[in-house]
Amino acid sequence: MSAARTEVLADAAAAAAASVRGPRLWSELVHHPGVIFGGVILLLMVAIAILAPVLGTMNPATIDPTHRNQLPGSEWTTGAGGEIVWTAWMGTDTLGRDLYSRVIYGARVSLLVGATVAALSIAVGLVVGLVSGYVRWLDAIVMRIMDGLMAIPAILLAIGLVSLWGGGLLTVIIAIAIPEIPRVVRLVRAIVLQIREEPYVEAAVSVGTPVPLILIRHVLPNTIAPLIVQGTYVCASAILVEAILSFLGAGIPPEIPTWGNIMAEGRVLFQVYPHNILFPGIFLALTVLAVNVLGDGLRDTLDPRMASGSDPDASQGAGHRGSGSAIAPA
Description:
The protein has helices spanning 3-31, 33-50, 52-55, 99-134, 136-150, 154-165, 169-195, 199-206, 211-247, 259-266, 275-302, 312-316; strands at 74-78, 84-88. It is mainly alpha-helical and 330 residues long. It has a single domain (3-59, 95-305), classed as MetI-like fold. The radius of gyration is 25 Å and the shape is elongated.
């Protein structure tokens, strides 16, 4: 059988397998407890971030020195006749700002940083990993650069970049994304190194298929599932790093409400007023937990090798196969 015929049959077999796998995969996702738990909590946090202007009771930047360091549930009246009653559900900070509103609005920044860093690092890492894994002479050069970046602790690298470029949302996103790119590159490169030796890729090369088309049709589909899982871990890590940078005073400016900034401002009086750190800490921990649990559930579902009770030898060959990866019979 000719190489061109082999490649055509491989694509047809892969399309048929994908049509069967799709509904079963969706059923496994919606019934996986980790996906359900992580997805529900994450959707709740996204809803809170989007509806922050509606859910918030006060302007998060409003300073009221007369009602600073109020305990959770405190109430007071404002207006000439005392007709307006304000309730600080989570108390107030040292400047009298409503902690509940600041925590609600802080979800916007934290989720934005996590999602943007994940998207940016995956986009850059995917392109670099595909080229590095397939072009042999470029592999050694690129990977030495990636190894150099991974040798620097992510927090120190982010602090250094923020110190050079100044604090700000865009600066923090770039500073957090740069240390995450090498991890994505190494993941994609490992997949490419395995896929490029498959018979269907060799058949495509033998009939003169251009390299960009080979990468898009045969290699790229095999990276989608691992990158989805990796994206959840990058998102959780980015949320934590942003909170650490803000807590250290090297991240987003303190006037912008983020969970890290709120905890940084409340650490001085933590023993007296622990609610200043307790509530943003709970939201931060719950969000990171939900993203990580969601990632674990996606990994168990999308990677057949992680499924319980599966045949290790049989799943080993199917671990990185996707669209265009079926081997046609001779």
